[in-house]
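Repro:
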Amino acid sequence: MKPINDAHVVEPGLAEVEVAAADDQTAFAIQELLATRWATALADRTVREPGEPGVRLRCYLDLRQEASPA
């Protein structure tokens, strides 16, 4: 796993989220679910690590805003 970028968690309410999933479709579905609730800096691609199963996707959330109704 890559190190956390200090700029993305510089104050309370900011979060860096890494999604591990079996495939791109699942990873992007999780990202979309997060984006419906909080301000999200969306990733436009997933990463595959050679020799490891599945994909990873990293996005950034701003939880300081009021959450949308579920």
